[in-house]
Amino acid sequence: MTRMTSSARPLLNRRLAEFGTTIFAEMSALALRTGSINLGQGFPDTDGPEEVREAAVRALRDGRGNQYPPGPGVPELRTAVAAHQERRYGLSYDPDTEVLVTAGATEAIAAALLALVEPGDEVVAFEPYYDSYAACIAMAGGTRVPVTLRPHEGSFRLDLDELRAAVTDRTRLLLINTPHNPTGTVLTREELTAIAELAVERDLLVVTDEVYEHLVFDEAEHLPLATFPGMRERTVTIGSAGKTFSFTGWKVGWITAAPGLVSAVRSAKQFLTYVSSGPFQYAVAEALALPDSYFTAFREDMLAKRDLLAAGLADAGFKVFKPAGTYFITTDIRPLGENDGFAFCRALPERAGVVAIPNAVFYDHRKAGAPFVRFAFCKQAGVLEEAVGRLKTLAG
After folding, report:
1. What is the mean pLDDT of the chain?
2. Does pTM top 0.90 for this prediction?
3. HEC string of 269-337?
């Protein structure tokens, strides 16, 4: 006889009750159903460097990583991550005690928050925020405290006074994302200095998501928070191969941090995936050693695509916030006579054959994000040109 579940209690853990199917799944399904160009979900439509893909094939054939890799990650990748941080930013990390490989940046975020946050702790995060931030804070039993980035002179900016006011005696951790998804904001040296001073003054931990570190444009500069005074010992820095090398399906990410922080995060991570992406770890180790010319060409290619899509969106009638980093463009739909991003994005496939994401899903303060819509430009130039042509119908 089947035992019936009590109807008095929902099946889903209450901490996750507010999180249903992600907007990415909904909009990607809509793109498939309507035959629309999907500029919603942020994944490239071409593979990364051939030599990196071949490195993965070689690892598979040589039997490297086909069984469980070491829990912290294969030594070759941990060494490559440490060398990358040293070469790029002058940050010295011990590959054995200060680097941990994860199943993409998403697991790194989850493991860090589960390890470092206890029920009742407050986590300050910038909104709009990557949607897994809210879910991971909830799973850890923490309370998220959003600080809103607001439009100012063509970009979204942080109000440092609002950030300071958000920190209380219950604040455990700051969750920082720069370059910032979805707005494309890159925090300045002055802003990062103020964040570092606040963290030191209030003795806060910081988790900083820097997966778009190699995608900064124009005059912007990526400055890891761990390089600022007093921050190396309190900062967990998250990196990822997916965004930099266009192999998002490999799910190879990592953290760099002081030994105590790495040990704490590893304690949570070992009960999530335990290990993952064995052969791909060897390939990413080779990818991180690619010459500077690769990273320069990658950035220049994305810059050209940014400008192509930004110009097309402006011609279609959107107000465009040209991003200083990432591969997303946030737009304001009010010049088109619209103010509801959800309704606009759900109708856009039928109106123009293009899919985008409503930024309101990344906000606690939904009204603050209501008129903003995000488009991804990490697609082939021909795809972007076709999308721009379709969107011109909105201007009519």
Report:
1. 95
2. yes
3. HCCCCCCCCHHHHHHHHHHHCCCHHHHHHHHHHHHHHHHHHHHHHHHCCCEEECCCECCEEEEECHHHC
